[in-house]
Amino acid sequence: VSEITQHRDYSSQDFHLIEGKQGEFTLWKDDEKIYDKGNNDFPSGDDVIDLL
């Protein structure tokens, strides 16, 4: 998250990472879900660029 906040006018408090049971997670910015990872997924380069 710190890498994301360096490129935009966000603070780390604007982001929330919600972990699942088996490697799943969702990343939220304020009240908007901006990324959802399933247990078999791995974030691709395109996913990372979309987040930036």
Automatic annotation (TrEMBL):
Protein name, as recorded: Uncharacterized protein
